[in-house]
Write a structure and sequence with these properties.
Layout lengths: L4 E5 L6 H12 L2 E4 H12 L8 H9 L3 E4 L6 E4 L2 E2 L7 H10 L3 H17 L2 E5 L2 H5 L5 E6 L2 H14 L6 H17 L12 E4 L5 H15 L1
Parallel strand pairs: 1-6, 1-7, 2-6, 7-8
Antiparallel strand pairs: 3-4, 4-5
Bound molecules: cytidine-5'-monophosphate.
The site of cytidine-5'-monophosphate (C5P) has 15 residues, from helix 2, helix 4 and helix 8.
């Protein structure tokens, strides 16, 4: 039997990162934050990225090598041997990431890179298209949902904890724009895989959700 893949997809601020990390820790396997890959690429390419020609983009992307260092829950996503820092966590970088994430060359590059990691290591992979496009054969798939207001408040708190200024109303607007952009794009839109288990994260604690996820995973094994 090869490596195991568990996918967690859903919109911004729904709790994917906390839950994917927590599940990886419980199962003692690696955690892959694919949003960080799109964010890091957006950060490296800069604001002109959305207007770049495909060829130029492909060339720039080819120079970006993403790797997972280590195999367990303490594994770390690297871009060219460097840890992806917190500077990519702002909503501004998120919006730019969402713009380049609609482009075919970008998605193809990321998919190839993510599938390679999935062949090498057991993963909890979080993103938008993990269960639908990148790992359609994953052994266990989750799709997270929560009210936009709940998600904006959560994201706001996270940014404040990082010591950043955060205006909840502005974050709500940016998140809504990003969700629309991610849900309506032609390639790999944000939709639940038909075989994903849907979970509303608004009314449960992370520990309760992790218990449910772990039980569901145990049932599939
Ligand atoms: O998850 P996170 O908010 O960090 O993702 C940033 C952006 O990257 C998303 O809004 C989305 O446009 C893009 N993304 C994607 N597919 C993924 C993960 C992220 O298109 N698997």
């Amino acid at each position: 039997t090869g490596p195991v893949t568990i996918t967690i997809d859903g919109p911004a601020g729904v709790g994917k990162t906390t839950l994917a990390r927590g599940l990886a820790r419980r199962l003692k396997i690696a955690y892959l934050d694919t949003g960080a890959m799109y964010r890091a690429a957006a950060w490296m390419l800069g604001p002109s990225a959305a207007e770049m020609q495909e060829e130029e983009l492909a060339k720039r992307l080819d120079g970006m090598r993403f790797t997972l260092k280590g195999a367990g829950p303490d594994s770390c996503l690297l871009l060219e041997d460097r840890v992806i820092g917190e500077q990519v966590r702002t909503e501004e970088v998120g919006l730019l990431a969402s713009s380049i994430a609609a482009l075919k060359v970008v998605r193809e590059y990321m998919k190839k890179s993510q599938q390679k990691m999935g062949r090498e290591t057991s993963l909890v992979a979080e993103g938008r298209d993990m269960g639908t496009v990148v790992f359609p054969d994953a052994s266990c798939k989750f799709f997270l949902q929560a009210d936009a207001g709940v998600r904006a408040a959560r994201r706001c708190r996270q940014l404040q904890e990082m010591g950043r200024e955060a205006d909840e109303q502005k974050i709500l607007e940016q998140m809504r724009r990003r969700d629309v952009q991610d849900s309506e794009r032609a390639i790999a839109p944000l939709v639940p895989a038909p075989d994903a288990v849907n979970i509303d994260t608004g009314s449960l604690t992370p520990e309760e959700i992790l218990d449910r996820m772990a039980a569901i995973f145990a049932d599939t094994g």
